[in-house]
Specification:
The protein has no helices and four strands. It has 71 residues and is an all-beta fold. The protein starts with 10 loop residues before the first strand and ends in a 10-residue tail after the last strand. β1 (11-22) and β2 (27-32) form a beta hairpin. The chain has a four-stranded antiparallel beta sheet, with no helix packed on it. The chain is 0% helix and 42% strand. It has strands at 11-22, 27-32, 38-43, 56-61.
Length: 71
């Protein structure tokens, strides 16, 4: 998820939001990391504040809460 100020996680990455879509029950953010990697984040709308396209954010996840998909 996108980390709020002071929030920590097992793994973190600085990224820029490239796309944000409201899908009713959740929001989907597409992020671009510093090395060009692409990340998709699904979160509930009530979790934190909405973020804007082009906003720099810090994303984080716990061990076991991710899937790696090759391009």
């Amino acid at each position: 998820h996108i980390l709020e100020q002071g929030e920590t996680s097992d793994h973190t990455i600085e990224a820029v939001i490239e796309d944000a879509i409201f899908l009713g029950s959740h929001l989907r953010y597409r992020l671009r990391g510093p090395a060009g990697e692409s990340l998709l984040i699904h979160t509930r709308p009530s979790k934190g504040r909405p973020h804007a396209v082009a906003e720099r954010v810090r994303a984080g996840w716990r061990d076991g809460d991710h899937r790696v998909v090759s391009a």
